[in-house]
Amino acid sequence: MPDPNPATLDFLMTRRSRPAKTLALPVPDRAQLMPILTAAARTPDHGKLEPWRFIVIGRAALARLADLAETRGKALGKSPEDIAKGRIQFDQGNLAVAVIEVQKPSEKIPPIEQTYSAGAVCLGLLNAALASGWGANWLSGWPSHDATFRAQGLGLNDHERIAGFIHIGTESSAPPERPRPDLTAITRWLDT
Ligand SMILES: Cc1cc2nc3c(=O)[nH]c(=O)nc-3n(C[C@H](O)[C@H](O)[C@H](O)COP(=O)(O)O)c2cc1C
Predict the structure, then answer these.
(1) Cβ-count burial 11-28 (b if 16+ within 10 Å, e if not)
(2) Which CATH number describes the domain made up of 23-172?
(3) CA 49 to chain centre
(4) Could you list the pLDDT tens digit for every one of the 192 residues in the chain?
């Protein structure tokens, strides 16, 4: 017989991100962050390649990334609106963890599976932060897809990408529920 864990199931059925712009101080310190990162690193990973790592980004580094996003936006010819959008998550944030996808050479594990695993780390990190009582939000934004921003801002190599910035802080207001998928529309039951 299954041995259910109702508290975990209840969390998964009700979990909800908190918009990054509503996250306030305080943010978790290193000791509080370690179990959250530990939980996130406990993620399905075909072949034990560990195709991911973390960069914990504090306030001063976020300010630097905001300026770099503006510099890169201008260099790329982006509109003022897009440049402002590129800056804002770094301007508003107090703490973010960048989950870095690190592609590992493998004859057996295709690159896409390493990408999926990095995405799973992002969800694990988000859920661990939420379950620890923090507000958290998984963001990307155009700078995360700009190789020059990644290299200059975070020192990433060519085989590394940003799977997500997980912003973590203190919830200041609970967001309304978000419409959730219609299970009948997205689920097909194959019996034969
Ligand atoms: C890869 C990825 C990137 C995302 N980037 C952004 C983003 O840049 N801005 C944003 O508002 N939401 C972004 N989202 C959406 C939010 O993280 C999240 O899905 C939404 O707020 C609802 O989350 P919830 O199901 O935890 O409530 C992204 C989601 C994913 C999976």
Answers:
(1) eeeeeebbebebbeeebb
(2) 3.40.109.10
(3) 20
(4) 999 999 999 999 999 999 999 999 999 999 999 999 999 999 999 999 999 999 999 999 999 999 999 999 999 999 999 999 999 999 999 999 999 999 999 999 999 999 999 999 999 999 999 999 999 999 999 999 999 999 999 999 999 999 999 999 999 998 999 999 999 999 999 999
CA-wise closest residue to 72 among 178, 168, 149: 149
Rg of the chain taking only CA atoms, in angstroms: 18
Determine the distance separating the centroid of ligand 1 and the alpha carbon of 114, expressed in angstroms. 20
What is the C-alpha to C-alpha distance for residues 119 and 160, in angstroms, rounded to an integer? 13
Q: Cα(55)–Cα(112) distance, rounded to whole angstroms?
A: 22
Ligand 1 site: residues with CB under 6 angstroms? 16-17, 137-141, 164, 178
CB 41 within 8 A of CB 182: no
Domain extents for the chain? 23-172
pTM metric for this prediction: 0.97
| CA 137 to ligand 1 centroid distance, Å | 7
